[in-house]
């Protein structure tokens, strides 16, 4: 998708385009459970001989390979549900199953409006993730706030602090080339 955007829409501001340009893979574990997924079903029905297909198992394996190639990792979880479980399980379950034990996530921030009282995944706290061995106990923060309010503030703060300027680019997409 990024290559298509680069060819046809190179002047457009796009997260997908910038991720492509910097070799940052994008994973969407619940893609089929969205309006985009419905569009993909329609696309496949209209193009029986050649169509786009999403391989969610390959996504899972690739994210596991990124963790295997990384030292310290962290989670920046916006919301919860499938994406939260997907990112947390990569460390504890998938890397172990593939014989590449890695340390748990060192850092974690979760932004949610979900409440833990109903027992749903979106409201489960990072304290629970620590009990499963998914997140280190030291550097975790739950933020109960509506994401469209807090995420722009966090991103702006991180950008203006400038710490990213001295970091080397990881280019994780190159692991799969």
Search tags:
3 strands, 2 domains, 7 helices, 3-stranded parallel β-sheet, 43% helix, alpha/beta, 177 residues, Deoxyhypusine Synthase
- H/I helix tally: 7
Distance between the termini: 15 Å
CATH superfamily of the largest domain: Deoxyhypusine synthase
- Provide the spatial order of strands within the biggest beta sheet: 1-2-3
Helix and strand composition category: alpha/beta
**H/E element order:** HHHHEHEHEH
Q: Could you please describe the fold and organization of this structure?
A:
By secondary structure, the protein is of the alpha/beta class. It has two domains: 54 residues, no CATH class; 122 residues, Deoxyhypusine synthase (Deoxyhypusine Synthase, 3-Layer(aba) Sandwich), CATH 3.40.910. A three-stranded parallel sheet has the order 1-2-3, with helices on both faces. Helix 6 links the parallel strand 2 and strand 3. The longest helix is centred in the middle third of the chain and has 16 residues. It is globular, with a radius of gyration of 18 Å.
Topology:
Layout lengths: L1 H7 L6 H7 L13 H12 L9 H13 L5 E5 L3 H16 L7 E8 L13 H6 L3 E10 L2 H15 L16
Parallel strand pairs: 1-2, 2-3
In brief:
With 177 residues, the protein is α/β, with parallel strands linked by helices. The protein has helices at residues 2-8, 15-21, 35-46, 56-68, 82-97, 126-131, 147-161; strands at 74-78, 105-112, 135-144.
